[in-house]
Amino acid sequence: MSVAFSEAGRAEFERLLTRYPDRKAAILPALYLAQKEFGYVSDEAIVYIAGLVGTSPAEIEGVATFYTMYNRKPVGKYHVQICRNISCSLLGAEHLIEHVSRKLGVRPGETTPDGKFTLEKVECLGSCGTAPVMQLNDEYHENLTVESIDRILDQLP
User: Fold this and answer.
1) Over the stretch 78-126, which tens digit does the pLDDT of each residue have?
2) Which residues are within 8 A (CB) of 37 and not within 5 positions of it... i.e. 6 or more apart?
3) What are φ and ψ of residue 63, in 5° steps?
4) What is the DSSP string of 12-31?
5) In this predicted model, what pLDDT tens digit does every residue of 21-77 receive, in sequence order?
6) Residue 132 in contact with residue 93, Cβ under 8 Å?
7) Burial class of residue 59 in the structure, from the number of CB atoms within 10 Å of its CB (0-12 exposed, 13-18 middle, 19+ buried)
């Protein structure tokens, strides 16, 4: 299956190119645009982006897998990412991950059967001063406890 940006997506990509000195410099925003257009960064999207920016799919794959902000497979309506780096771990992140895993009935890397939640543990969310930290879609939640996570997740529609 091949993918291609919509007309609006293609126009957005062309606008992105005007901000950078060369096409390869637009890899990160192009991947973000692909995720926005297709829901996640599929293998087909990797090949498509490589063609657009003039590099190899392997280089695009390397970028897409380095950053936690790119989803390499479909995720639920709510993408719950809990940091497990040293600061978060020292302040109970593993316990929080286990709690959320039991609460949602999925293990890290899985999506609930209704497609509502995807749980992931990630290496670093870059917010060590407010650990433990969870990213829920594009929003950060800091200084987490079991109670605060429950409150956050329970109020989601």
Assistant:
1) 999 999 999 999 999 999 999 999 999 999 999 999 999 999 999 889 8
2) 5, 6, 9
3) -70, -45
4) HHHHHHTTSSSGGGGHHHHH
5) 999 999 999 999 999 999 899 999 999 999 999 999 999 999 999 887 899 999 999
6) yes
7) middle
* DSSP-derived 3-state class of residue 134: strand
pLDDT value, residue 1: 59
Report in angstroms the alpha-carbon separations of 5 from 39, 96, 100, 124, 132: 12, 38, 35, 30, 37
Look at residues 82, 110, 75, 116 and name the one whose alpha carbon lies nearest to residue 96.
82
Is residue 48 exposed (0-12), middle (13-18) or buried (19+ Cβ within 10 Å)? buried
Nearest to 143 by CA among 100, 99, 93: 93
The 10 Å Cβ neighbour count of residue 22 is 9
